[in-house]
Amino acid sequence: MGRPDSSNKDLRNTDKPNADFKKHKLYKTRFEFSNMPNSNFRAVSAKFACFIRANLAGSDFTGANLTNANFGGADLTNVNFKSAILDRANFKNAKLDGVILDNASMKQCKNVHEAM
Which InterPro entries did the record assign (predicted)? Predict the structure, then answer.
């Protein structure tokens, strides 16, 4: 049985706190302006996913592959990115208060230091 596949879906403006996407494929999925605090994104494959201005505060992205994801202007307060792959991800104007980045890969990340 493979991973649930929600790739290329348009989930903009979704209002779904505590959503569970654990181990989903989310390639190029669009979450712009969504309200999804305290959601489970553990071990997702979300390359090129777009989270612009989404509220993801308190969510868990442990072990997620977020290569080239866009978190521009997103609320990532207290988000857990432990062991996540954030290579080339964009964090311009994101809120990163209390974010956990232990063992995360952040090669060529954009704007992460300015946001912290």
Answer: 5peptide_repeat, Pentapeptide-BTB/POZ_domain
